[in-house]
Amino acid sequence: MTATRTVRAYRKAIEALQAAERTHNRNTDELDAAFTAKDAKSVYSLREVVRKSETALIEALDTACRAHGAYWRERLEIIRPEAIRAAAVLRAYDAIARCTGNTQPEPHRIVMLDVALVKPDALINDDAVPTEQPDSAVLDDLLGCWRR
Known about the structure:
mainly alpha
């Protein structure tokens, strides 16, 4: 039950995000060195380079987040028919329980799901795509650093 097309897109987007982070780190290091050396001409041109690499990093993060969402939406669509079948079976279970005289408002379906799903992350994550959206510590740390 894997979504191979979206897995590949996600992994490609993550690789691009990591490359954009490396480039941005390298560019900001060069800008820092120019500031330290008080090389005004280099600072002026490197600011533009860092601004562009920051923009590229923001775009790469956005692409990775969209690929992450697409993967999980596809997984949801893949499993939807099973969820519908499971809901029908659990409804039948409740109806049969009522036939046995069990008229108490017990949440049979919820209890059965809780017992069956011991570790839900292990069940849904067979492609090793994290459940959390991608982020960028580099972007968080260096956002706007070219403006100084």
